[in-house]
Amino acid sequence: MSYLKKIEVLTTYLSVDIPYNILNVKSLSGFTLLRHPLISVEYYMYLYARVGMLWGWTGRYLLSKSQLTEKLRENEIVILYKRSVPVGFYELEFTGNRFVEIAYFGVEPDLVGGGVGKFMMSDAFQRCNSLNISKIYLHTCSFDHPNALSFYQSCGFEIRKTAKTWEYYPSDFLEKFQ
Known about the structure:
The chain is of the alpha+beta class. The protein contains five helices and seven strands; from the N terminus they run ββααβββαβαβα. It has helices spanning about 40-50, 65-75, 115-130, 150-155, 170-175; strands spanning about 5-15, 30-35, 75-80, 85-95, 100-105, 135-140, 160-170. Strands 2-3-4-5-6-1-7 form a seven-stranded mixed beta sheet, sandwiched between helices. Strand 5, helix 3 and strand 6 form a beta-alpha-beta unit.
């Protein structure tokens, strides 16, 4: 990875109350979602890069191995497999007694728009409902997929606020925008 540069981005914060009218998404042929309670840092970072590289994800690279290990112990990682090959994941970060943040949510670029995002979000809603979670938070920013915000809104999330924030991005990623 190239060096990281801190830049200002527009971040949109969203939330949805649970139980929300759970998305009516049936299983998809060839796809499976599996929870990974003991995921290794190496496997997680492989998935993180595979799904997030196109969007400049860097947050987990900023953590030490011990910090990331602790975070993975605390959070719940759910991986989407297509015929036994990992092609996406979401990460639930438990932020309070009955609150959760979807810290990361993504699929490989060739799967965007094919219904697997709704399949994953439906699973996340069902999981949160089973844990008595009352609210799910997430955020997206100006460098995420152009349809990310509308996708989250189509799943029932509502915008709570927008703000300019400072985030780290790889310099080679930023070159695409110059």
